[in-house]
Specification:
Layout: E1 32-33, E2 36-37, H1 38-42, E3 44-47, H2 48-52, H3 75-92, E4 96-100, H4 101-104, H5 111-130, E5 135-140, H6 159-178, E6 183-186, E7 192-193, H7 201-222, E8 227-230, E9 240-241, H8 246-255, E10 262-267, H9 268-273, H10 278-287, E11 291-295, H11 314-326, E12 335-337, H12 348-374, H13 379-385, H14 401-407, H15 420-430
Parallel strand pairs: 3-4, 3-12, 4-5, 6-8, 8-10, 10-11, 11-12
Antiparallel strand pairs: 1-2, 7-9
Helix pairs in contact: 3-5, 5-6, 6-7, 10-11, 11-12
Length: 431
Amino acid sequence: MTEFFKGITPAKFEGADSTNPLAFRHYNPDEMIMGKRMEDHLRFAVAYWHSFVWEGGDPFGGQTFERPWFPADTMDLAKQRADAAFEMFRILGVPYFCFHDHDVRPEGATLAESRDRLNQIADYFETKMADGGPKLLWGTANMFSNRRYMSGASTNPDPDVFAYCAATVKACMDVTHRLNGENYVLWGGREGYETLLNTDLDRELQQMGRFLQMVVDYKHKIGFKGAILIEPKPQEPTKHQYDYDVATVYGFLKRFGLEDEVKVNVEQGHAILAGHSFEHELAMARTLGLFGSIDMNRNDYQSGWDTDQFPNSTPEAALAYYEVLKAGGFTTGGTNFDAKLRRQSLDAEDLIAAHIGGMDICARGLKAAAKMLEDDALEGPRRARYAGWEKVDYLDEGQTLDGIAARAEGLDPQPVSGRQEKLENIVNRYV
């Protein structure tokens, strides 16, 4: 037990009637749902960065959290932070965690020193993972915080930054592979532009596409069996980002011949910033064959930026997991809590309670989604709405516009209700 979490015991499932704020009321890892354990459906992961790196600042104020490992600018402090992280993983009983390189080690004076420190902390992680710690859901590289990336990483106008980016991703992929990570994520935090006045759009897209091709080639070269994931994100912090949403990413992948090699890691908060719902982005990923993993959080609907709050809406979670289940469930992906405390929530207990609450919301959502599928509650009405298409051959090879136009003679189609309110009422019965 670390001093930071002193006195906090492992969270247990106590059932819906429990009033214990540090116990699960709905998340029962061994509960069977659609023939699979709940834990294996949800595949929970903790985001190392928000839980152990973020200091509580916002655009108008600095640090509010006081953690014994801050500022984690030495390897000893980085290891102390790792001790606390793996202690929290144990308390929550999560099967996975995720990290950026910048989260887990202090940046060195040189590229070589940064890479060496990353490998040192990977050694430290290996001992903890072997001692019953969680597995690695995915690793990624932070290529947005350092000022060298102010004009992008792979899209940077300076080829030296492109090379530095390549070396950074290679090192992170190597460590992810060594730690048996199940995915590798690319999040283009600065891959976009502030103004077209100084931007060569075609060149930057070509750089980004070629870089991703090299990432995929390197995956196969080292024998990494996990998935390569892109995390779509709209206009924050830049005015426009090239990986705006799932549909945009699909077009990008098709352009560079990568649609069969790369999937998406969809975040709820990013979906909202793009003007979509979470279930829309997941349905799009499923439809386009890109579904990989999810970052579970939410945004404040009254704020226009990425607030990364823990989920608290069962209806939203239910509709999200409905799409996950329709996609066949997670394979290499999972549910990563890319969420952070509010800057006034100062205590270690707050960090535990936030994750417990989020895990319970996801569990409730999963159970509602599974029941809706089992009862054919939404799929039945949906099939009925499109049933007429089973009786025609309009989309068959050889059909022509003028041929179908001729068959329309004498038809008088009448509108049929979409019954949206009835379907909303059905969903509300399950949640």
